[in-house]
C-alpha cells in the first residue's frame, strides 16, 4: 500500500484548502474572510458575521434585512419535536440533547436528505438550521429549569430573540438588556469559526460522505462536547470553583498542572495553534470585566482566574511550552453573569460555531472534496490461524 506518513492528531497535516478563516498562531492573528476578529467583535452583529462566513462577503443593508426576514420565517421547530424535550430525564447534559435534536431535524425537513442537493435545497437547509438552533437551545434550557417553553417573537433580531426565548417569561413583558445583547453578540462572533479544529474537521469528515448538513453538524456538536475542545468552558468554571472551595491557593493548582504524574491540566490554557496568545481570549477578558461591571456582579472566581493567569504566565513550565489562556478561560464567567447555568456553556459555544460549521460544510461540498479517509500504520498481529473455543 506504499509509504504512510504518520501524524497523530494531525499536528502538521493540512486536510483541506479553505478560504474562510485565517489563523496565524505565532502572531496571534485571527481573521474571518480577511477581516480581523477584533474589528468584527467590536463593530458587527453575529448575524452579519454568519453571513460573511457562509457567503464570503459582509452583507449590504438589504442583504442583511432579507436574510433576517428569511430566518424569521423558520424560527419555529416542528411541534412534534417537543416530545423529545419531554422524553429526556431532567438532568440530561444539554450537549447530548442538542446533538440529537439537530440530527433529528433531518427527519422533519427531508429536503435536506438529497445526497446531491440543489442550490435551493442547500440554501433552505442552511437557513432552517440557523433559524431553529436558538429555539432548540433555549428550549433545552427552559426544560431543564422546568419553565414553559417560549415561542420566538420575530420582532426581535436574531440574538435578542434567543435571549427573549431563554430568559423571558410568559407572565411578564421581557425587558431586553442591551448589555446582554451586546455581550452575546460578541461572544458568538468570537466563537463563529476557527478553521480546522476538532469539531469543524468532524463536520467536514462526516459531510464528505455526502451526509446531510443536519447530521454533519450534529457530529460536530458531539466533537465539541469534549473538555479538551468546547467542553473546556464548563471545565474552567468547575476548576475555578474547586480552587475557590479548596481555599483559593492558586500556586498549589499550578503545581498540580505541572506535575506529569497528575492528570490535572489548567483548563482554558494552551492551544494547538496559538503559541503567542489567543486573540479571542484578549477580547473576552476585557468583555468579562465590562459585563460584570455593567451588571454590578462581583464573582469571586474572576479574581481566582486572574491570579491563576498571572502565576501561570510567569512560570517557566507555561512560558517554555507557550501555554496561554484560550477562548474558554474567561467566557464562562461572562455566561454565568448573564444567568446561564454551567452546563449550558458548551451549548452556547455550539450556537456561536454554527455558521462556521455550515460555511465549512458548504465549502467542502462546493469544492467537490473526496471522502475523508485517513490511513494508518498497522501495529497488530500479522496473521494467525483461528483457534477454536476449547483451545483458547
Ligand atoms: N495545563 C498543563 N499543561 C499543559 C496544558 C494545560 N492546559 N496544555 C498543554 N500542556 C502541556 C502538555 O502536557 C505538553 O507538555 P510536555 O511537552 O511536557 O508533554 C505540552 O504542554 C504540549 O501540550 P499538548 O497536549 O501536546 O498540546 P496539544 O496541541 O495536543 O493540545 C490542548 C492542545 C488545547 C488540547 C491542550 O493545551 C489542553 O489540553 N488544554 C486544556 C483544555 C482546553 O483549554 N481546551 C480548549 C482549547 S481552545 C478552544 C477549543 O478548542 O475549544
Total of helices: 17
Anisotropy-based shape: globular
- Classify the oligomer: single chain
Taking strands numbered 1, 2, ... along the chain, how are they ordered across the largest sheet? Answer: 1-2-3
Assign the structural class, choosing from mainly alpha, mainly beta, alpha/beta, alpha+beta, or little secondary structure: mainly alpha
Specify Rg, calculated over alpha carbons: 22 Å
Helix content: 55-70%
> Which small compounds were modeled alongside the protein?
carboxymethyl coenzyme *A
Labels describing this entry:
about 400 residues; mainly alpha; binds carboxymethyl coenzyme *A; Cytochrome p450-Terp, domain 2; Citrate Synthase, domain 1; 17 helices; globular
Describe this structure in words.
- It catalyses: oxaloacetate + acetyl-CoA + H2O = citrate + CoA + H(+).
- Keywords: Transferase, Tricarboxylic acid cycle.
- One of its GO terms (biological process) is tricarboxylic acid cycle.
- GO terms for molecular function: citrate synthase activity.
- The chain has 392 residues and is mostly helical.
- It has helices at 37-43, 46-55, 61-72, 82-87, 94-108, 119-145, 158-167, 178-191, 198-207, 213-225, 232-245, 250-258, 279-295, 300-313, 316-320, 328-338, 345-366, and strands spanning 21-24, 29-32, 35-36.
- Strands 1-2-3 form a 3-stranded antiparallel β-sheet.
- The longest helix is centred in the middle third of the chain and has 27 residues, at 119-145.
- The protein is globular.
- The two termini are 33 Å apart.
- Bound molecules: carboxymethyl coenzyme *A.
Amino acid at each position: 500500500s506504499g509509504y504512510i506518513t504518520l501524524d497523530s492528531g494531525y499536528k502538521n497535516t493540512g486536510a483541506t484548502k479553505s478560504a474562510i478563516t485565517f489563523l496565524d498562531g505565532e502572531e496571534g492573528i485571527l481573521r474571518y474572510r480577511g477581516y480581523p476578529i477584533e474589528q468584527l467583535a467590536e463593530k458587527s452583529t453575529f448575524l452579519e458575521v454568519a453571513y460573511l462566513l457562509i457567503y464570503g462577503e459582509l452583507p449590504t443593508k438589504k442583504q442583511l434585512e432579507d436574510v433576517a426576514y428569511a430566518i424569521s420565517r423558520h424560527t419555529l421547530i416542528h411541534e412534534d419535536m417537543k416530545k423529545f424535550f419531554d422524553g429526556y430525564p431532567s438532568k440530561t447534559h444539554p450537549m447530548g440533547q442538542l446533538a440529537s435534536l439537530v440530527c433529528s431535524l433531518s427527519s422533519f425537513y427531508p429536503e435536506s436528505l438529497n445526497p446531491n442537493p440543489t442550490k435551493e435545497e442547500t440554501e433552505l437547509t442552511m437557513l432552517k438550521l440557523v433559524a431553529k438552533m436558538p429555539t432548540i437551545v433555549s428550549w433545552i434550557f427552559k426544560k431543564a429549569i422546568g419553565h414553559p417553553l417560549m415561542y420566538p417573537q420575530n420582532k426581535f433580531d436574531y440574538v435578542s430573540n434567543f435571549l427573549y426565548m431563554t430568559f423571558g417569561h410568559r407572565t411578564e413583558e421581557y425587558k431586553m438588556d442591551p448589555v446582554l445583547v451586546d455581550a452575546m453578540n460578541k461572544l458568538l462572533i468570537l466563537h463563529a469559526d476557527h478553521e480546522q479544529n476538532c469539531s469543524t474537521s468532524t463536520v467536514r469528515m462526516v459531510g464528505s460522505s455526502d451526509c446531510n448538513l443536519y447530521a454533519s453538524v450534529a457530529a460536530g456538536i458531539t466533537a465539541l462536547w469534549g473538555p479538551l475542545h468546547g467542553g473546556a468552558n464548563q471545565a474552567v468554571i468547575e476548576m475555578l470553583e474547586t480552587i475557590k472551595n479548596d481555599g483559593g491557593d492558586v500556586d498549589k493548582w499550578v503545581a498540580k498542572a505541572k506535575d506529569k504524574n497528575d492528570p490535572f491540566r489548567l483548563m482554558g490554557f494552551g492551544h494547538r495553534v496559538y503559541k503567542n496568545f489567543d486573540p479571542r481570549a484578549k477580547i473576552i477578558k476585557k468583555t468579562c470585566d465590562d459585563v460584570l461591571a455593567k451588571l454590578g456582579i462581583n464573582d469571586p472566581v474572576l479574581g481566582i482566574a486572574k491570579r491563576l493567569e498571572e502565576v501561570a504566565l510567569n512560570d517557566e513550565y507555561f512560558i517554555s511550552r507557550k501555554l496561554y489562556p484560550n477562548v474558554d478561560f474567561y467566557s464562562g464567567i461572562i455566561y454565568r453573569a448573564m444567568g446561564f447555568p454551567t452546563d449550558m456553556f458548551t451549548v452556547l459555544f455550539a450556537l456561536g460555531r454554527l455558521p462556521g460549521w455550515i460555511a465549512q460544510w458548504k465549502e467542502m461540498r462546493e469544492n467537490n472534496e473526496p471522502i475523508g479517509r485517513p490511513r494508518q500504520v498497522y501495529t497488530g498481529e500479522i496473521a494467525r490461524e483461528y483457534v477454536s473455543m476449547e483451545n483458547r
